[in-house]
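Incident log, structure service

09:12 report received: a user says their structure output differs between two submissions of the same chain.
09:20 pulled the input from the user's history:
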Amino acid sequence: MKYILAPSILAADFGNLKRDVETVARAGAEYIHIDVMDGMFVPSISFGMPVISSIRSCTDKVFDVHMMVEEPGRYAEAMKKAGADLLCVHQEACVHLDRTIQQIKDLGMKAAVALNPATPVQTLSCVLEQLDMVLVMSVNPGFGGQKFIPYATEKVRTLRAMADERGLDLDIQVDGGVGLDNAGQLLNAGANILVAGSAVYRGDAAANVREFLKVFEERAGKG
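09:34 re-ran on a clean worker, output below:
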């Protein structure tokens, strides 16, 4: 299993966004996690297509776009044009989730679905085979710097068991309160992509990325 770090630029310095994206990319992060918020599904408003387009030329790393918006299918084509490689929509925000997943895949992007903390993983039972990734939210979405919700770890374990039982090569991502103190436990539970915002961009971002990669290497060494 491949382990991937996805630094969240929600915690970056917006005045130096290009620099901060390049810093983590050079340090070894393979994904750039971009939170798109509409002020409706979550209270905050963040990045849109112009910002994504403006930083697309900074790096060839995977743009992992997390859509915290109502009915995200409305923006799928525009996100593809802006530079998204992977589009993650919330189960709770889609009236017709199956249709939205197919729309994303038809546009040539990887399709992922995010689950809020109180949403059980079993709600994805009918669409799991269609997904490239599931994002388990370990905080309630909308704000950075929140405290990790412990029961998210068990959700990851349950989801990995569901995927293994079906023989699926499914990426499982965790976002919210992720740091070096709990990264190992999340990997052990079955996650393989970790989103980290404050834990990366607080202090020396390049050094923090390298510390996460050490945890990944240690886990990979254990098989």
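09:41 both user submissions now match this output. Likely a transient worker issue. Closing.
09:42 reviewer note: The chain has eight helices and eight strands. The radius of gyration is 16 Å.
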